[in-house]
Amino acid sequence: MIQYQSENITVFQSALYQTTSTIIQTNEMVLLVDPNWLSGEVETIKDYVNAIKGNRDTYLLFTHGDFDHIIGYQAFPDAKVIGSVGLKQHPQKEKKLQLIREFDNSNYIIRNYPIEFPRLDIVIQEDGQQLCLGDTTITFYLAPGHTEDGLMTIVEPLGVLIAGDYLSDFERPFIYQSAKAYRQTLEKADRIFATHSIHLLIPGHGQATADSTEMTRRLDMASDYLNRLCEAVMTNNEIALDELYHEHAFLSPFTEGCHKENINIIRRECGSSGIAGG
Ligand SMILES: [Zn+2]
C-alpha cells in the first residue's frame, strides 16, 4: 500500500514489518529505494515504476544489505545500482541470500526474478559524496551502527532524507553492528538536519514525516534509548534492562533476540571503550 504520496515522492509500505519502499521522480531520473518484501508488493512497485519512468534512467538505491531491503533487487535488472562500499564488500552475502530463500520457502513464495546480492554501479565511499543529475543533487553519508554498510541519502532540492533503519517513529534502535557507531551515526544525522533543509524523513520501517519536531523527537528518542541501555548494561541493572526491553513495539521472539543482541554488543564494546554517558 502507499503510505505517503506527493508530486515527486511515493512511499510504499509492505504488509511486513512496516518496511518502506521509496520512489522519487525528478525531471532527470527515477530513484527507487529498497523495493520489498512480498512478490506481489514488488510487482506493484515495478508496475508503478514502469508506468511513470518514460525514458528516464532508473537508479536503485540500497540503504543497507539486510535481506528484507535487498529482496527485490533483480526485479529491476536495468537500474543503475547505488550502495555503500560496505555493501559492496559485505562479508556475508551468501548468508543474506540464504535468509531470503528461507523466508520464501517458509511462506511458499514464488518470485518471477532471481535472488542475487546487489552488484553496485555507483559505490559510496565517503561522507558527502554526491551524485548530480541535472537539477537534482543526491548526497550520501555513511551510516554504520545498525549495520556496517548503512547509508543515509539526501535528495535535494526536494529535501528528502532516506534514513535506512534509523529514525523510525516506533522502532527502538536495533544494533546489529556497533553501539558506538550507532551513536556516531545519530550525531551525524543531527548534523545533517543542521546543514541540509530536510522536508521529509523516510525511515526503513514506519512512517515518513514532514514534521521537523517529530524528526527531532525520533533522534532524541534513539539517542536517549541508547544512553539508558548503555548505562543499564554497565551497571548490570536487570530491572532497567527489562523496562528497556518493554519499550520495544510489537514484542516477539524477534524483538527479544534483538534486545539480547543489543546488550551483547554493548557489553563487548563497553569493556574497552566505555561508551556510556558521552
Ligand atoms: Zn530493516
Q: Can you give the mean pLDDT?
A: 96
Walk across the major sheet and give the strand order: 1-2-3-4-5-6-7
**DSSP strand (E) fraction?**
15-25%
What can be said about the biggest beta sheet?
7 strands, mixed
Q: Tally the helices: what do you get? A: 8
Using the alpha-carbon principal axes, give the shape: globular
- Decide which structural class fits the backbone: alpha/beta
SSE string: EEEEHEHEHHEEEEEHEHHH
CATH class wording: Alpha Beta
Helix content: 25-40%
Q: Low-confidence stretches at least 5 residues in length (pLDDT < 50)?
A: none
Bound molecules: zinc ion
The CATH level-2 architecture is identified as 4-Layer Sandwich
> The CATH topology is what?
Metallo-beta-lactamase, Chain A
Instruction: Tell me the Rg in angstroms.
Output: 18 Å
Distance between the termini: 41 Å
Q: How many separate structural domains?
A: 1
Q: What would you give as the CATH superfamily?
A: Ribonuclease Z/Hydroxyacylglutathione hydrolase-like
Number of strands: 12
